[in-house]
Amino acid sequence: MSTTDHAPTIGDIVTANPGAARVFERHGIDYCCGGRRLLADACSAAGLDVGAVLAELDGGPVYSAEGWARLEPTALVDHIVTTHHAYLHEELPLLDALAEKVLGAHRRRHPELADVRRVVGEIKADLEPHLMKEERVLFPAISAVAAEGGTELPFGSIANPIRMMMLEHDRAGELLAELRRVTDGYRVPDDGCASFRSLYERLALLEEDIHLHVHKENNVLFPALLRLADA
User: Fold this and answer.
1) How far apart are CA 130 and CA 172, in angstroms?
2) What are 128-150's pLDDT values in tens digits?
3) Stated pTM of the model
């Protein structure tokens, strides 16, 4: 893989080879909200050697682009709702309650759990209305654009809600970065109980799922929709 051949963005790399996401996650490279950057620029900003990262990408397993990468916008919307929205609707309330339980049990020895509990609550408070706006406003608009073409809808251009959703994605990314910081990279302390371990393991999975979720929207769905609207 070369940084000059067609200058692929980080998002392009993950869409073509989903296994690359694990390399980027390991190095803290944002491939969802920051997916439009070139790899060299992202590595420079993170203080990483682009050659070393490229070597990891080239040396790791290559997976074929998954089926969702080839879906039309309306089908991709259905995939996102049934895969990621359904997961978040179920998991966010459970994680919120579990974070409260673990804080109550370990507050004295691990005061950092107060921050974990706060950030989990903020993620839930931010994402639940975000999901509702996508399901009630943006995604029906996507179906209308796909069926009828054009860019103008009752609330104006389709670009308007897309812009707002991307700003909210940025906020979710900031909260996930804070969550990784306050959990010390989801490292469970030696005296952590089974609930403590379950919380951190599930928070790590939450981060991974949201990153992929946002990547599918920011770097695949939204660009395809804007191209369709402009056609």
Assistant:
1) 10
2) 999 999 999 889 888 877 776 55
3) 0.82
